[in-house]
Design goal:
CATH superfamily: START domain
Number of strands: 7
Distance between the termini: 34 Å
CATH topology: Alpha-D-Glucose-1,6-Bisphosphate, Chain A, domain 4
Low-confidence stretches: none
Number of helices: 2
CATH architecture: 2-Layer Sandwich
Mean pLDDT: 96
Strand order of the largest sheet: 1-7-6-5-4-3-2
Radius of gyration: 15 Å
Helix content: 10-25%
Structural class: alpha+beta
Number of domains: 1
CATH class: Alpha Beta
């Protein structure tokens, strides 16, 4: 079972970064791989159990469920329900923490999942590079452009 862990420091205050990330349906505004996103059944994007259905720029469709959301801990977790990529039993956790030196934000993103035999390294590298590291870069660009939630 691959485990992918990535972390970074974002040069913006935790409240500003959390305002963007806590919107479970807002990733289409900042992640370059996401074309569009909706929350199913008209639920709010901060309701635990809500499901987001989204398309990637390549047209593939995914569904993810919000498992936890804590403003006090500036953290959330989610799981994949449907994906064209064989990431089975995928559960991810995002946690932010303040970096008091410079009023910055520490961002920890990790996941565990199963894969078909022999594809562990390939899929773990893809998740870490394209999703997590791509997300870090995208949030930096979003914030630098004055992006908000």
């Amino acid at each position: 079972m691959p485990k992918v862990i990535r972390s970074t420091v974002i040069d913006y205050p935790i409240d500003a970064v959390w305002a963007v990330l806590r919107d479970f349906n807002g990733h289409d505004r900042w992640h370059p791989a996401v074309a569009d996103s909706i929350i199913e059944r008209g639920q709010t994007s901060d309701r635990v159990g809500c499901v987001r259905r989204f398309h990637l720029k390549d047209g593939s469709e995914l569904r993810e469920m919000l498992l936890t959301l804590s403003d006090a801990d500036t953290a959330f977790s989610y799981c994949l329900l449907e994906t064209p990529v064989p990431l089975l039993n995928y559960v991810a956790h995002v946690r932010l923490a303040p970096v008091t030196d410079g009023d910055r934000t520490f961002w920890h993103w990790e996941s565990r999942f199963d894969t078909p035999s022999g594809r562990e390294r390939e899929l773990a590298d893809m998740v870490g590079r394209e999703i997590y590291e791509g997300g870090f870069a995208a949030i930096r660009a979003h914030m630098a452009a004055g992006g908000t939630a």
